[in-house]
Each structure stands twice: as structure tokens, then as C-alpha cells.
Amino acid sequence: MKVNQKKRIARVLAVCLGTAAIACGCGKSGGESGKGMKMLMTISQMDTFRLTLAGGAQQTAEANGIQLEVVDAENVIENQVDQIQKAAANGYSAILCGAIDVDTAVELKASAAGLPIVFVNSCPNDKNLEKDAYMYVGSNDAMAGEFQAQYVLDKLASKDEINVVLIKGPNRHSATKGRTKGIKKTFAASGKTIRYVFEDHADWSTEKAEEMYELFLQTGREVDCVICNNDAMALGVVEACKKAGIDPGSQLILGVDATADGCKAIENGEMAFTVYQPGTGQGQAAVEVATALALGNSAKDVEGIAEDGKYVWVPFEKVDSSNVSQYMK
User: Where's the Periplasmic binding protein domain (predicted)?
Assistant: First the structure.
């Protein structure tokens, strides 16, 4: 992430979360609304999407009289563990956690010392989730990948062979795994010959994706579409094309998140498709679930609850040139 972008996110975060500081004297109190509760939201590493997620959580918390502290773990597991331990020791009622590494879920649960945890953005293994105790709120990432692959299949319906560049998020992130699985499963079922001419992890980074695609372009290999696990990486591909004198619109470039910059790129004909991930809705649902659990209630009545009671799903939405104006702010 570029320095000026980091500064911009930090400024916006300060404005959005300025009222969310810790109040040392409040523990579990209040009625069914959760009024007077303290909650901690620990984010793996703040970026544009996670800022939206935190903003949605903050809006819902404030509306219900809940004090929500949002902290950035800066992609350091030890930071996240320490943040959760301090919350558990200081009278917090629940934890909202965007896990840095989902394989640390057992350690994170132990650090919470019995407090309920609502995982967001990065989903632990099913065995580490528990109904009305350790739950996940998010969008079904496999569906985002399915939407991307189906868009390509529809646009390239006349082609029997499709050359795909696949640029993925962090190796151990659940969204990376889910979106990639959805892409490959949908392509495999198409009956077409799918060639993955380049596939690598750019870790959600615009700059890293740009560098990767610049190197790929130097190979001269044919490509029909570039599918990225998020918009930031797709925008890196757009920049690489521009630097190489290639019209980004001459190939299908796809992302996920429907960020403001991603939507603008679609409007300009530089990106073809993205998938709206409702960050605000995820944040709102996470606080709603956390409130129920902190009060010792069930989350069974929360909209989007799965049959097993472990997940709350907030649906993805398809975005292309035909409807992108609806998603632009």
C-alpha cells in the first residue's frame, strides 16, 4: 500500500472511530440492547474494505449504546493476541476478530478467556466455530469466485479454450481459498479447456499485483482474462497494462469488493467486473451477533443465520457496467 493511501486510511479511521475509545469503568450492563457494553474489534491489517467493515460495526454499536474499540493488529499475530488478552482482562463483553491467521483460532479463543468471539473477514476452520459462542459473520467467498468465473464464461461463450491469469490474496486467508475454489470449480464444470497461464499470490496489494503482471506481460503469453481475489490487485493489473501501452479494456479484468476505485475503473471501461462485498452490512451483523452472545442469548434470529448456527451470511452482489452506478459513492 502506498504511503499516502496509508495516511488517508489512518485519517478516515480516526474520524470514524474517534468515539470508540475505551471507557475503563464499564462492564457488562444494560438491557437487551447491550447499552453500556464494551466490545473490542481487532482487525488484521487496516485497508479500504476493512475500514468500511469497521465503520459498519461502529455505526451499529453507537446506535445501541455500545462502546466499540477498533484496533489494527498490523498483521502481527502477537499484537492480536495481546489485544484480545487485554480486552478479556478489562471488562469487555465480546470480541469481534478479523484473524490474521485462521490457524491461530484456538489461541485466540484461549486469549479471550471465555468471552464470545465473532470472527469477521477471515473464517476459521469449521471445527473451531461453535453455535452461540464462536461464530463467523461474512459473505460466502466461494460464491464470489463463482460469480467471477461465470461472468468470464458468459463473455467468452464462443471460445472453447480460455487462458486465465489468477492473482490471489494471502496464502492462508480464508477469502483467498474460498474465492479461488469457487473460480476453479466453476471453470472445471464448464467443459471448456481452461489454461492457468499465470497464478500467484499478491497478498491484496495493488503494487505487488502490478509488478507481477508487468513480469507476466514480458512473457508474451496469450491471456483472455485476469481474475483477482480483490479490487486492489485488479487495479494493479490495470496500472501494469497502462504502463505497457495496453488498453486494460482489451482483456477482462475482474476483482472483488466493489471499492470506490474499483467501481470507477469499471465505469471507465478499465475493469470488467467486480463483486460487491457488503462490508458495512458485515460490520452491522457482527455487532448484532456479538450483542446477542454477550447477553447470553442465541443468535438464531439474526438475518442470514446458517442452519448449523455457526455462520451468518451477508450476500455478495454482481457488479458490471450495467449497474455500477448503483455502487458508486
Answer: 45-297
Angle subtended by helix axes 231-243 and 260-267, to nearest 10: 50
Gyration radius of the chain's alpha carbons: 20
Task: Give the closest residue to 49 by CA, choosing from 313, 211, 262.
Answer: 262
C-alpha to C-alpha distance for 258 and 251, rounded to whole angstroms: 19
The architecture that CATH gives domain 38-139+279-314 is 3-Layer(aba) Sandwich (3.40)
Distant-in-sequence contacts of 109-112, Cβ < 8 A, 24+ apart: 109/134, 111/81, 111/84, 111/85, 112/84, 112/87, 112/88
Average pLDDT over residues 90-110: 96
Domain boundaries, the chain: 38-139+279-314, 142-276
CA atoms within 13 A on the CB side of 237: 32
Q: What is the pLDDT of residue 11?
A: 39
Backbone angles phi, psi at 253, to 5 degrees: -115, 125
User: Average of pLDDT values for 21-35?
Assistant: 45
Whether the per-residue pLDDT at 14 is higher than 60: the answer is no
Chain mean position to CA 26? 31
Three-state DSSP class for residue 53:
helix
Q: Is 38-139+279-314's fold the same as 142-276's?
A: yes
Q: How far apart are CA 178 and CA 184, in angstroms?
A: 10
Mean per-residue pLDDT, 202-207:
96
How far apart are alpha carbons 314 and 317 in whole angstroms?
10
Q: Give the C-alpha separation, 152 to 294, whole Å.
A: 44
Residue with cell 480464508: 174
Interatomic CA distance for residues 219 and 240, integer angstroms: 14
CA torsion, points 61, 67, 73, 77, in degrees to nearest 10? Answer: -100
Contact 293, 250 (CB under 8 A): no
CATH 3.10.105.10 fits 142-276, yes or no: no
